[in-house]
Amino acid sequence: MRGARRVGWAVATVTTVALAAGACGGGDGGGGGDGVVRASWGDPQNPLEPANTNEVQGGKVLDMIFTGLKEYDPETGEAKDAMAESIETDDQQTFTVKIKEGWTFSDGTEVTASSFVDAWNYGANLDNNQVNAYFFQFIEGYDEVHPEDEGAEPTAEEMSGLEVVDEQTFRVTLTQKFSLWPETLGYTAYAPLPQLFFDDHEAWLERPVGNGPYQVESYNRGQSMRLSTYDEYSGEDEPQNEGVELIVYTSNNTAYTDLQAGNLDVTDDIPASQVRNAEQDLDGRYINQPAGIIQTITFPLYQEEWEGDEAADVRRGLSMAINRDEITTQIYGDTRTPATDWTSPVLGEDGGYEEGLCGDACTYDPERARQLIEDGGGLPGGSVTLTSNVDTGSHRQWMDAVCNSINNVMDDNNACRVNPVATFAEFREQISADRMTGMFRAGWQMDYPLIQNFLQPLYYTDASSNDAGYSSGEFDRLVDEANAAADQSEAVETFQDAERVLAEDLPAVPLWYQNGTAGYSDRVDDVRLNPFSVPVYSEITVN
Amino acid sequence: MGHYVIRRLLQMVPVFIGTTFLIFIMVHALGDPVAALFGDRTPDPATAARLRAEFNLDKPVWQQYLLYMRNIFTGDFGTAFNGRPVMDLLVTAFPISFRLMLVAIAFELVLGIVLGVVSGLRRGGGVDSSVLLLSLVVIAIPTFVTGVLAQFLFGVKLGWTAPAVSPEAPLNELILPGLILALVSLAYVTRLTRTSVAENARADYVRTAVAKGLRRRRITTRHLLRNSLIPVVTYLGTDVGSLMAGALVTERIFNIQGVGYQLFQGVLRQNSPTVVGFVTILVLIFLLANLLVDLLYAVLDPRIRYA
Question: pTM, whole model, 2 decimals?
Answer without folding.
Answer: 0.81
